[in-house]
Amino acid sequence: MTTQTKFKITVPATSANIGPGFDVLGMAFSLYLTLDCERLPAGSALQMSYEGEGAKDVPLIAEKNLITKTALYVLSTYGITSLPPLKIHVTNPIPLGRGLGSSGSAVVAGILLANAAGELNMSKDRMLDYCLMVERHPDNVAPALFGGFVASFLRELEPEELEPSSIPRSEPTRNGAAQPPTPTVDIGHYIQLGWNQDIKAVAIIPDFEVATEDARAVLPDMYERADVIYNLQRIAVLTTALSRSPVNADLIHKAMSDKVHQPYRKHLIPGMSEMLEQITPKTVPGVVGICLSGAGPTILVLATENFDQIAASVQEIFARQPNGGIKSMYKVLDVVNDGAQTVYH
Fold first, then answer.
1. Residue ranges of E strands in 170-275
2. What distances in angstroms separate CA 103 from CA 28, 34, 110, 169, one per listed residue?
3. How far apart are CA 89 and CA 33, in angstroms?
4. Considering 175, 297, 304, 344, which has the largest number of Cβ atoms within 10 A of its Cβ?
5. Rounded to two decimals, what is the model's pTM?
6. Measured on CA atoms in the order 46, 74, 104, 261, is the torsion positive or negative?
7. Least trusted range by pLDDT, from 29-38, 44-53, 162-171
8. Other Cβ atoms within 10 Å of 263 Cβ, number
9. pLDDT digit string (tens) for 151-167?
């Protein structure tokens, strides 16, 4: 069989922590990280170029770029010490550090790159194991890999399954140079949930970043039982309500309330408390629900109509924050059923 010389990898952006679904619920959007790849003659050097979000800051060295670093990790577990000669052009419209799964999408892209470049023939379930060795949040990588509205959980791993620390991470971690381990099987589990296609996502993206590690640092180590029950009740309702037709906006809005992460992160996103209180189905027509996207600072509004006015309502709250306000942009996105793909041509 002749090796195909060109292939294209596409990976959707995602949102995680949907409403009460902290570290559980995620969804894939119609906004795609793409890699256009071409095999080069033997002996050629890797050529990598990049356009889009973060173009000035993203490293293009294989050992430092998250996409290629992840690919190198996967290949190393198959006894392959380097990427084959490739020309890779990355196009990234996903804002970095904004809660739209940019790091998760990069990790998934790296897994698919290794699979294609090394002709590994991995199943998507096996790819998920590798994703979760790098990005420890299945609610981002599962929808990026499989598409749709997804619930997921991560099997607790023994310390020896996580070491040594030369596994690349999408967040800061320990240093180390030992041989990376091959992941065990079935690290993560997921299920694709129903989704009413009349519901779109309006992502209002402010002009500042919130690092995931900073957003996690403000969370408590222990929770009150009442707060846990509050979220469990709502997540059970929300996951079904979002699939039903006609859309029950009032029920979904109430079921998207959260007491596990948003109350602790509100001081990281100026105006967030006001947005959660004021942007409702009763005050802004078309609104179905509102929450923080991922660890923020993007605000995610689920809606069936009136998308521009909804975005303007959130942007106005950002704009009137102290010290000159906060600039923002917005995107109206579909929740897409197709996850990451590799197309050969």
1. 188-193, 200-206
2. 14, 13, 10, 9
3. 11
4. 297
5. 0.93
6. negative
7. 162-171
8. 15
9. 999 887 776 666 544 45
Place of tokens 């959007």: 29
Q: Residue 115: which H helix or E strand, with range?
A: helix 102-117
Per-residue H/E/C for 256-319 = CCCCCCHHHHHHHCCCHHHHHHHCCCCCCCCEEEEEECCCCCCEEEEECCCHHHHHHHHHHHHH
Distances (CA, A) of 82 to 27, 40, 118, 222: 33, 14, 10, 43
Q: What is the structure's pLDDT at 178? A: 47
Is a pLDDT exceeding 60 seen at residue 34? yes
| Of 301, 300, 292, 294, residue with least CA distance to 269 | 292
Query: From the CB of residue 56, how many other CB atoms can be counted at a distance below 10 Å?
Result: 6
Q: Over the range 211-228, which residues count as b (16 or more CB within 10 Å of their CB) and which as e? A: ebeebeeeeeeeeeeeee
Residue of 101, 102, 124 whose CA lies nearest to 112: 124
* Segment holding 246, helix H or strand E: none
Q: Are 137 and 16 in contact (CB under 8 A)?
A: yes
Contacts of 251 by beta carbon, 8 Å cutoff, 6+ apart: 237, 241
Determine the Cα–Cα distance for residues 258 and 208; give it in Å rounded to an integer. 23
DSSP symbols for 57-102: TS--STTTSHHHHHHHHHHHHTT--SPPSEEEEEEE-SPTTSSS-H
For residue 11, list its beta bridge partners: 33
